[in-house]
């Protein structure tokens, strides 16, 4: 998500009743024609079978209500193949807090690499952060959640004043896109 032509990232969550509906909705979203300015769409399946997420990369300013701006992309294994993408949002008291926390997270990841983490993409929208991370497997992400590194850098990330965890989802890529 760190491309010079990228004007914004839009994440959309579509609720579904069951895995069958999830598959049919994902197929429809993957096959749609892209309007001008929409450079790429990645379709993600929530592992619980209750949602389809789309991550849209725009080269012109999108008209969606919430448009995230790419802030940092960290690639830890460019040759790795993700089996799980985790999409999470966080909110903070101010825009500056969101930007500062994003920088602290990038610093923590660089200083203490996480096993199974292939890439981390951080985007901001005012006081909100969109965190999209690619993992080797859902189990690798779960292991990280259960055993977050015990370092000063990670304590600053985890205990940032005013940090509010938003909704998150572990997903499998249904239809990747290249940008």
Automatic annotation (TrEMBL):
UniProt xrefs under Gene3D superfamilies: 3.30.70.100
Top-rank taxon, per record: Bacteria
Protein's name in the database: ABM domain-containing protein
């Amino acid at each position: 998500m760190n491309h010079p032509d990228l004007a914004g990232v839009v994440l959309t969550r579509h609720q579904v009743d069951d895995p069958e509906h999830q598959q049919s909705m994902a197929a429809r979203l993957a096959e749609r024609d892209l309007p001008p300015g929409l450079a790429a769409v990645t379709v993600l399946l929530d592992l619980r079978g209750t949602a389809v997420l789309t991550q849209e990369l725009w080269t012109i300013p999108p008209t969606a209500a919430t448009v995230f701006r790419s802030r940092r992309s960290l690639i830890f294994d460019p040759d790795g193949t993700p089996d799980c993408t985790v999409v999470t949002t966080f909110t903070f008291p101010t825009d500056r807090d969101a930007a500062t926390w994003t920088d602290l997270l990038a610093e923590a990841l660089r200083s203490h690499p996480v096993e199974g983490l292939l890439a981390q993409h951080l985007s901001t929208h005012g006081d909100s952060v969109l965190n999209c991370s690619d993992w080797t497997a859902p189990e690798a992400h779960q292991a990280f959640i259960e055993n977050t590194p015990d370092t000063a850098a990670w304590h600053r990330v985890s205990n940032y004043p005013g940090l509010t965890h938003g909704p998150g989802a572990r997903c499998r890529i249904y239809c990747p896109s290249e940008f």
